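Notes continue from the previous slide.

Worked example: a multi-chain complex. Inputs as given:
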Amino acid sequence: MGTPNESARGQRLRTKILLVSMLTLGGALFASPAWAHGEGESEEGYLLVQQALGHLAHDKTSDGIMLAMEKIDDALDAEDQEGVDLAELRQAKAALEAGQTEQGRALLQHSISEAVSQLEPATGDETGTTVVLDALPGGGSLTGADWGVLATSVALVLLGGGLAWHFGPADSVNQLRRRLGNPARVQPVVRSDTRSKDSS
Amino acid sequence: MTTLNSPVSTPASRPRSRTRRVLDVIDDRLGIAALEYPVPEHANNLAWSLGGVTAAALGILIATGVLLVQFYSPVPETANQSVRHIVTDVWGGQFVRGVHFWAAQAMYATASLHLLRVFFTGSYKKPREANWLIGVAMYGLVTLGLFTGTVLKWDQEGFEALGHNVEIGTLVGGAGAWFSPQFADQVPILLRLYGAHVVIVPGLIIVLVVLHGLLVKKHRISPHPSLPTDASGEQAPAAEPTEPFTHHLRRIAAFGVALLGLLGILAVLAPPAVGPPPVAGIEITKPPLTFWWMFTLENWIGLPGILYGGLAFFALLVILPFVDRNPNRFWRRRPVVMAIALVVVLAMFALTALMAATPVEQHLGT
């Protein structure tokens, strides 16, 4: 047990830490939510077309096509249609309805060529995206070089594992416990004021 | 056998080889022998070497990162394309990127395991509280490094991650100003996050690693909870055999070689994909696995869920050594903190599992 002064100091320190923690958490909890960019649904036609392309790039199932069609409809109804070729947009919609997804995507991309060509260099959190490409998958068939790297990597695992085993401690924790004794079977640690101060 | 009370030294009478003499000349100038301080033998097992393995992962990340920055373009218009160029056109680019990606996952995993080991063995207790806080800070920086790395590939997943961060930055008001696009409105936020990823985050981690190592030396390796301690209860007993710290480093280097091999295998067999370039205003991807537990909270209570979840987790880690005054290190004699930790870990696993079964929901811009 500590002296009364030490106990009081410890108590004050703990109180301060708890107060700071509560204030930090409280500040976060009661901070007024500022939702998003405050803009909701985009009114920019070209961006709605890009969103349609985004859905198609990520999900080629009927769900993705349905979401893309919604965005195309929004683009056709948007107030700001600057730089969007509406005729091509309608062709793209027709192609998607006919199940010609790739042709639809190409037409969608082409329909906003003028809009994206006028974009200023991106600042802030603007995407700077002009063309929505497909994902580039990571996997594929292994080349000769891949097999070589794979073999080298396996060799490194074996080498590292072997060295780690070789450099391992002479005694396991169980062996040390047998030699030094098991504190779990002796009395628990109790704080003492008489503790040596030079031990660390 | 060497013990804590006996210095590690070489008998002066032993004839010195030419290599030894060269090393001695170098050591006279660089003082490398200072690293040969004794550490208790239990420190050389794998669980107590996880911090070193984390440092090895950091080394691999820095080496591969230096290669990747030669070809990466941190500009929104070309960032995604430059990653594709690295993967498809640069010789060995896909492999280097794969090793970098998997090394980041490995660093997060080994840092988490190291943190759990320190927790379960009570190594954060007096006099090592400050080093625990440094470790928690490094853990936060590792998370930040993962986040910024996710954004840098500038695909839909990365852009949505950024979107969440920008909005959380807005939620916390002035404290999140740096994450606001308006902080430097003529500069793409991608460029600032690139600076954070390649300079600020690794730079801070390296500074903290040095401090961490110095404090480990000052306070010595904590005693094993299932072995006796010295009279203070804060150090391994004098009777426990020791080895020079350089032997500890040697074994960590061996683990590092094995880790590099493992990362190479993963880079070849499971190279990371590059998603489509980002589009604003849609939310259609899931975040990286390490962030899933927070995003389940987001699905329940909206964007603030990520903030509250993250803050609560790190607040628990920070206050731990100050509220846990139980001097025992053995887990069975610490039922309260063990029960709390079990609840937290199970909750995080449950939230992660829930995310796996949850469709993507739109939170940005709603």
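Summary box: The two ends of chain A are 19 Å apart (CA to CA). Chain A touches chain B through 87 residues (CB under 8 Å).
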